[in-house]
Amino acid sequence: MNERPGVSLKDSPVGASRRGFLGVAAAGLAGAMLAPGIQLIEIARAATPQAGANPGVRWGMLIDTTKCATGCTDCVTACSTENGLGGGTRPTDPQWLRKVEIKEIKTGRTASVPVMCQHCAEPPCVDVCPTGASFKRADGIVLVDRHACIGCRYCVMACPYKARSFVHEEVTDQKPDVPRGKGCVEGCTLCVHRLDQGNKTTACAEACTKAGHGAIVFGDLNDPDSEISRRVREVASTQLRADLRLDPGVRYQGLS
Predict the structure, then answer these.
(1) Pseudo-torsion of CA 168, 174, 175, 179, nearest 10°?
(2) Which residues pair with 141 in a beta bridge?
(3) Smaller CB count within 10 Å for the chain: N or C?
(4) Measured between alpha carbons, how far is 99 from 204 in angstroms, rounded to an integer?
(5) Does position 256 have pLDDT exceeding 90, yes or no?
(6) Confidence (pLDDT) at 52
(7) Domain topology for 12-253
(8) Of the given ranges (77-91, 115-129, 172-186), which has the lowest mean pLDDT?
(9) 95 vs 82, more confident
(10) Distance separating alpha carbons of residues 131 and 37, to the nearest angstrom
(11) Residue 248: CB partners within 8 Å, gap ≥ 6?
(12) SS3 state at 103
């Protein structure tokens, strides 16, 4: 893998999860106080669901910035449609995927590219969450359990990619496979509902391919025979803010 640091930005089963968290927390508090050294976040993480995730897989993306045209929003539109996010015309509208200006520090080269949750191997959003609502599945996908989320927005502040949105208003016309709720934090899920149903790509990657751009490759980074693994081996790729050592699952080609 050939990666270069130094890129900066300008710019589950949820029902059982909540019951599990409350049950474990209640048990821990039965003695009127937690035993010394026991933290609420540790109890919450013990109840975090991991069903459906294959630990042998790590889902990721490779985005070729040389094929991503300024002004093109095909991937943004596809994400919004797939997840029922609305038009994104108001400040309170969620942005799971957005086009931003990327600048390579060493060369000064800029590009307009899609940025979303980077699905880090070491996600800071998970580290700061006080209830365990932010969690990473065994296959590398970082998610938010809306039934455990208390809306504190610590994860929003911790994310260096500005990749999470807060739901300020009641949500209507929800997609059955993409539950959302007022007062919760949300972000790109790598179309986890599609993956768990056997689909092998995300809505944004699919739309980019259908439009003839071919800028987004999605797949299993752990599979040496997958297209994304082959491309990462053969071409230089960059992780955004690699200096933070978060090991994002999203990589960018052509930024240097």
Answers:
(1) 50
(2) none
(3) N
(4) 12
(5) no
(6) 66
(7) Alpha-Beta Plaits (3.30.70)
(8) 77-91
(9) 82
(10) 17
(11) 118, 119, 120, 121, 239, 240
(12) strand
Distance (Å, rounded) from C-alpha 247 to C-alpha 256?
19
Closest CA to 251 of 133, 105, 102, 77: 102
Largest separation between any pair of C-alpha atoms in the chain: 62
Please write the tens of the pLDDT for every residue from 42-82.
444 444 444 569 999 999 999 999 999 888 999 999 999 99
Distances (CA, A) of 172 to 95, 178, 198: 17, 12, 27
3-state SS string for 148-195: CCCCCCHHHHHCCCCCEEECCCCCCCCCCCCCCCCCCEEECCCCHHHH
pTM of the model: 0.79
The owner of tokens 């900066």 is 8
Identify which of 183, 118, 188, 130 has the alpha carbon closest to the alpha carbon of residue 155: 130
Q: Which long-range contacts (CB under 8 A, 24 or more apart) does 175-183 make?
A: 175/82, 175/83, 175/84, 178/82, 178/83, 178/84, 179/14, 179/146, 180/84, 180/146, 181/146, 183/149, 183/151
**Tokens 């089963």 correspond to what residue?**
13
State the Cα–Cα distance between residues 161 and 100, nearest whole angstrom. Answer: 11
Q: How far apart are CA 250 and CA 9, in angstroms?
A: 14
CA distance 166 to 150: 11
Query: Domain spans of the chain?
Result: 12-253
